[in-house]
Specification:
It holds the Pfam family PfkB. The protein contains 9 helices and 14 strands. The protein is of the alpha/beta class and 280 residues long. The strands form 4 sheets. Strands 9-10-11-12-13-14 form a 6-stranded mixed beta sheet, with helices on both faces. The protein has a 4-stranded mixed beta sheet with strand order 2-1-7-8. The radius of gyration is 18 Å and the shape is globular. The two termini are 20 Å apart. The mean pLDDT is 94.
Length: 280
Amino acid sequence: MVGQIARDLVLVVDEVPDAGGTAPVRERREVLGGKGANIAVGLAQLGAPVALVGVVGDDDVGERLIARAAADGIATGAVVRRPDQETGLIVDVVADGWRYLEHLPDDLLLREEDLPVDLIEGAAAVVVQLQQPPEVALKAARAARGRVVLDGAPERLRAELLECADVVRADHREAELLTGWTIKTADDAVNAARELMPKELVAFAVDDVGNVFVWDGGELVVPLGDVEVVDTTGGGDAFVAALTFALTRGDGPEDAARLAVEASGATVTHPGGRPELTGR
């Protein structure tokens, strides 16, 4: 798993106060977070051996996050401790929806020299989270000999990255950026996904509709489930973890798609982005 690592502070409040006001916090969680770490946690919970490639600072917070990842069953030998940097922080304020406050300096992004090429070459699947610099993402994708899963939309090098990908996953906005389509319906998303073929699988989210999956010779639209949504923060991360896990163990695209949607639905029912997929 190549992606972001951060301290995730989740604050649940009844309402966000106006300027000069205060509000009591009903629930507080401090966990290992960031999209890369969330996906790695989900993979480990599902039973996959997983290594995390990302950057933390050389502070006590970074040390604690590495220890937490190791306790979650994640190999942490490729996590970089960046000298003279504070570990990234994401504050997730959950009230009527969610709001993010982020401290994620550029020095906490991966650099090409940070990548453990031997580890990437030996992996059965490599998930590349595209919040990282495109040049770094491309180096990781090109080094991979197993399945390459791209999550998100790159700022640059779109064609080069897509050429390396076996599986592409994007939310609604990212899907529009990747394809140039305006997506309003599931049919729009299916047609947009077909623009990226041939691929093992393309998965696009469609706001207020659900998820569409397209593969060679097939397609599937899974409507939004009937779950009480508390916080959508980690839904996409759980989705990617479950999709990657299922495809890597040999599931077909329909079964992999349904497990991904189930994992996402389970994650959005609680505050914060940390998945809870053990036993699925």
